Automatic annotation (TrEMBL):
Pfam families attached to this UniProt entry: Radical_SAM (PF04055), Radical_SAM_C (PF16199)
Organism: Lentihominibacter hominis
UniProt keyword list: 4Fe-4S, Iron, Iron-sulfur, Metal-binding, S-adenosyl-L-methionine
Name used for this protein in its record: TIGR01212 family radical SAM protein
GO molecular function, one term: metal ion binding
Every Radical SAM core domain range: 30-269
Amino acid sequence: MKNIHTPLIFDSSDGQELRINTISTYLKKKFGGKIVKLSLDGGFTCPNRDGSKGTGGCLFCSASGSGDTASGSGDITSDLNSQIKLLSDKWPQAKYIAYFQSHTNTYAPVEELKSKFYAALKHPDVVGIAIATRPDCLSDGIIDLLSEINRKTFMWVELGLQTIHEITAEKMNLCYTIKDYDDAVDRLISGNIRTVTHLIMGLPGETESMMLDSVKHICSKKIFGIKLHMLNLVKGSQMEILYPDYVSFENIDDYIDLIISALELIPPDITLHRISGDAPRSTLISPSWSYRKRTVLNKIHKTLKQRNTWQGKNSHITP
């Protein structure tokens, strides 16, 4: 493949000349209108919380399993309805994707998973489902269930990789390896299941080169999407105890420099589901500026234009 020599504009419908392939743009084109994710807490836990692999969870994870804004009353239909009610004034014509976000959403018996996933899909305003999980919690039976759902509706599965580096994974108490990820993503993709990979930038001990190596590795797979954000030190996490003074990025500009380098490596056909973090201000410890999500995003877009660069510029893959 050859380098791309002219800027890629993925969406200019609102005058922004968007230089990244956002999931919002992808969904708008696919469904012909606004699609909103509704975050759900399905009542699951994780194997490194319940003692089967470890305790305490990943060091950076909040008490809610990094689903601080997810609804989890135990009644999925009710949770969906309550969120839709809150959003209906802003987006009266929107349709929705049910997003099982908190903890590990394939860590339960297949029949329980099936019941909860299909309960969400029965809602008349839900047009698809997104399921966040760990790469070591995908048995053959669960893959079969996901394949069945994938044949019936729009779906993606999110794998929380965070880093390809074993020393970091051990330090962060992930309790899974890059081999687990490679196996999981290969099995999902072979089943034509859209796969999104989550990386955290700024984990303790990682250099810029290490972080970009993680980006390169996941881009070598035929994944559907990527989620990137800075490490947020939050209250209630193990990191608050073990790394109380840790700051992943001292300022916005350092983070933006790294993210743009990452974006340039990401092939243009991969959708971007997140390029910043948004921990609630009430629980955020550091970086102190990261709660300003809109400011961070606006500055990323502005800097891409100033530098005349774009997603995929250095990926050597044409769209």
